[in-house]
Amino acid sequence: METVIRDNPADARVAGGAAEARARWRAAAAATGPGDRAAVERAVRAAYRAAGLPEPTAVRWFGSPFAATEAALELRAAGAVSVREAVRTRPWEQARRRAVEQVGAAGWPAHWALTGGELGPVTTPLADRVRNAVLDRLAPEADRDETSADAAAEARARRTTVRLALLDAVRGQHDAPWFAALEAAGAGTDAVAPLAEAAREAGWWWPYQDVALISERPVALHRDEAGRLDRADGPALEYTDGFALHAWRGMPVPAEFLAGLGDVTVERIRTEENAELRRVLLEHYGYERYLADSGAEPVHRDETGVLWRIVLPDDEPVVMVEVVNSTPEPDGTFRTYWLRVPPSTRTARAGVAWTFGIPETAYHPQRET
Q: 97, 142, 117, 150: which is closest to 22 by C-alpha?
């Protein structure tokens, strides 16, 4: 929801500037496909210079953050020194202090809400998903039941090493929330400007003393209306070198799991051992269809609707209220809705009341729509 400030023309201009910056950086955060490599390399070299460092002697490109992290691990093993502190951390802190000074300490929360606060809930989880996927693939956690103590210790050490390599990264386009906030506050310092320029055209990158590693942006990004990674027929996030993330409404799922969604049956839903994947199967199959095909019986009826309960092994039951819209559609039919309610719900009325945030005893609609 957009925040509109009407009383003070100056405040309205500030809000307008924040909206423009937010829109630009929302687009940058979601950008896919090759960027302008020459512009990125110029920006990276400028970032080194702004930090008072010699330019990198080499700039190497990679198809994904996964491949770039592998290269970072090799550099670290060979003794390479990260210069992220000088290139990104220090100028970032200076720019943030300047931004707070520009809008005032009291005005900062509202300024952030109009800029980074709007982008963060989408961009930050996406960056974390990339980071976690890289970590898990390069350093899987040891199986506690099947791994010796020495092997478990080795696995933990490997994960620590990969985490450190990931901490060397500048997140490029995924730093969009901060760039929006700094830009709208007029705090884009000379040291931060090159970082912003690189973020407009590239993904994550790693600044080391003699070499910079840069990841291309993804070639495909699929999200649902809430901004979560979501795709049923392929990768939700995909890079040119094959590194990809599969997800259904934000939940990570194996690629082979999605490949079988077209053949979902009631029996497959019942026998799926992973509770989270079972919920995905149920959502894809459809609650109404599952209730019909599984022979489920309603547990309560009243004038508000019908309460259904789906019992699932090793999981909480799925409880739904079936309600019929009292307003007819243009063709004269009445549309049926399925409302998921807490498992503790015992009556249809209580379920409908819960969707309005009120107790059952307080739900007395004069007219239902």
A: 117
